[in-house]
Amino acid sequence: MKDWFKSGSPWIWLNGGAVAISMIMVIGLIGLIAVRGFGHFWAADVALIKTTDHEGKTSVMLGELVRSQTIPTTVARDAGYHVPEGIDLVTRHLIKQGNRDQFGRDFIWLLGLGMAPFEYPEDVYVIERREWGNFYGQPVALLRSGETVASAAETDFREQLQAAVTRSLELHKRIKRLEKRDIGRINRDLERLRLDERSLELQDPPAAVRNAEEQRIEERRAVLDAEYAVLRQELDLLYTETKRDSLRMRMSNDQEVDINLATIVRVTAPNAMSVPAKLGQYVERLWEFLSDDPREANTEGGIFPAIFGTISMVFVMSIMVTPFGILAAIYLREYARQGPVLKLIRISVYNLAGVPSIVYGVFGLGFFVYFLGGNIDRLFYEAALPSPTFGTPGLFWASLTLALLTLPIVIVSTEEGLARIPSTIRQGSLALGATKAETLWKVVVPLATPAMMTGLILAIARAAGEVAPLMLVGVVKLAPTLPVDGTFPFVHLERKIMHLGFHIYDVGFQSPNVEAARPLVYATALILVILIVILNLTAISIRNHLRERYRSASD
Questions:
Q1: Domain for residue 104, yes or no?
Q2: At how many degrees (to 10) do helices 514-549 and 304-330 cross?
Q3: pLDDT tens digits, residue range 386-409?
Q4: Is residue 548 part of a domain?
Q5: Number of folded domains in the chain?
């Protein structure tokens, strides 16, 4: 036994076991997040639930079973439930009943006492709406301008309904295209004309120049007003078309409700769907989650703006932090005179890496946004004041704040890479007649590139998951536009962005509908983890390529 301990084998097994346990915990955590999050997109069956209370009254409800739990009877009685004596434990079920506009809430707890076995009628429809969440009920008729055009008893009712829903979705896309692209372009042009008028007031040019410019502005405004009138007429016609069709549904309490198809995203009958059909809808809903905009206070819809904002912020941050971090490390390692001042600078760099991120956010808000942004507005965007352009949180200031946050990481990693380059390589280059600058930039720096990429990888991993400083310098709950679009100058660094980390915080802790937001928190968290892994793997592949390229030189 002593020889076994002296051989070091126990410590090898101990380290291997610790690594295995860590891997199991990480994989288990990611698996839990994936099951809890991505399970939300599966078309769950809708149950017809019949319960009888202690007074003999029977109630009927339609809904999805979310989860069940066993609780003590004292807890159930404290919650207002009637539980007979002699029972210690009861089971309660969380049911997603939907129809929030009718019942006032999406979710309700029901005790298992007096509950009949669940039934799953095939004529139950789930209607996913743009507002008020899901609607559960049984179809009655398809209406057009208030008149019945198809009854639920007809054999081709589902085909007619699906055709009407498809038409409504196409109208909705056309409306959004007109509002965002065409009318949005006109509004931007009108805003430029307003700024041009304001610039004339501030510059006070000669009368001839002023008159010519004012005439140009008025002519252009007249053209834009005429274009807007045509688009407004077309938009009004489309809105009128969307109000034509509606679906009459019967709820579990036999009350009938008319739902305008313009508010409907999808209509399904999950109890009558096969597994392949549900799988196809699962892929469709998952893609919508990744590619659509959020709605319903971020508890419905997609997260594409958050994904795009996170990626764009990481790229802008990487572009800014990489050259500054590498140049600072090169100066500290290759040019700065060794002494107490340099030691103090290095200690300061190491300490900056441990400063809480919220401190960087406060600094970014005060210095970058208010000081730099405010002065930029006064110098270059005076016509837009008092509405700030760069004097308000945005993508550029958020990226710059994170660049400052991750700068010590890049500096330290680059310095370590430069320190690992053998002195014989430097001496050999100098002996062949190269200058110090040529040796540095053509020999030393290329060999240290993998270490620089390591610093960038660590910076990306740190920046992509930060939330606290971004809340102060550019991230918002819902961004109206993306920072990149087809409008000149195409990249708008002054715009506010959405971020996956802040989206998780907002949905998880600020949502008015906690139960509806819970699966989206898990799904968004998994997307953030996957995004960070993809960014890191991309940087790692580049680093490995550079390492293989310079392996022979370093040997």
A1: yes
A2: 40
A3: 889 899 999 999 999 999 999 999
A4: yes
A5: 3
